[in-house]
Design brief:
290 residues; 3 helices; globular
Length: 290
């Protein structure tokens, strides 16, 4: 199938935890942190680069059905960055609980942070240099479904409460890019310091409205193929957990490791695009913090 030159833009799923506060580890500059003085809102930024090894098992169908359920191993470069000016911020982290956010802080105290997210960007979009032909064969229809866009650009509110080494975060977002529904999340995080080791745990759940759930996992009549029949679903609650550990190797170098897990409900797994009820992601690597 000749689609011409294609540009693919991709952004990690995002729901950054504790954007306004110092790190839980030196290598995770705004996504997981306990309370901090209001000086944490001073102007400035950070940049972190990491060389990582990743093992991941996604629940989405592969183009080759024989590969469904297989884990993928990859080496890559992870980038986390953030910048704060007055109450405006931009942040990007490599975590399931991170990503690209642009927003403004409405309230900041040592115990509570309230942010207005003007743009919370997730998913991917493919930009074709030429208008692609309509899929005709069964294989072309299958490939078109699996390659379709999943870009989600939303605005909403993020509230984070801090108590000791724990935090609770609530988030509500509505897509303004293409009216693809609502996302919400509730998460509880805690950190433990053991010698020079820093351990973190985050548990919570995401909510997808029926519109957003169908955007990701539904199949319209126009898209349907023999392998992927038309499918409509309702809303979804998706439990998830992330466990992390980090160890400072020097002033600027940090070793980190993370394990992430999602349990997918029937409103997701009933989709013909989904082949498993769990997603697992393990990454480990060395990060340099500027």
């Amino acid at each position: 199938m000749e689609y011409g030159k294609r540009i693919v833009l991709a952004v990690l799923a995002m729901t950054t935890l504790g954007q306004a506060h110092p790190v839980w580890s030196a290598a995770s500059a705004r996504d997981r942190a306990p309370p901090a003085p209001e000086s944490a809102r001073e102007n400035g930024g950070f940049l972190e680069l990491g060389l990582t090894a990743q093992i991941e098992r996604h629940a989405l169908a592969h183009k080759n059905p024989d590969d469904n359920g297989d884990g993928d191993f990859s080496l890559g470069v992870m980038v986390s960055a953030g910048y704060q000016h007055d109450r405006y911020f931009v942040e990007a982290t490599d975590s399931w609980f991170g990503g690209l956010n642009l927003g403004v802080n409405l309230l900041q105290t040592p115990e509570l942070s309230v942010d207005l997210l003007l743009a919370n960007i997730a998913g991917h979009i493919s930009i074709e240099s030429d208008e692609p032909p309509a899929p005709v064969t069964e294989q072309e229809r299958n490939d078109a479904i699996l390659d379709r866009d999943s870009l989600f650009i939303a605005a909403g509110t993020r509230i984070t409460a801090y108590r000791g080494d724990s935090l609770l975060q609530l988030r509500l977002l509505s897509d303004w890019y293409d009216d693809n529904g609502l996302q919400a999340s509730a998460r509880l995080g805690h950190r433990w310091q053991v010698g020079n080791w820093n351990f973190q745990g985050i548990v919570g759940a995401r909510y997808y409205s029926s519109t957003f759930n169908n955007y990701l996992y539904g199949v319209t009549d126009a898209e349907a193929s023999q392998r992927f029949p038309s499918h409509t679903t309702g809303h979804a609650w998706i439990p998830e957990v992330e466990l992390g550990a980090s160890y400072p190797l020097s002033r600027d170098w940090v070793y980190t490791s993370r394990l992430r897990f999602k349990q997918l409900p029937a409103s997701v797994t009933d989709s013909p695009l989904v082949t498993d009820d769990q997603e697992i992601f393990l990454t480990t690597g060395i990060h340099y913090v500027f």
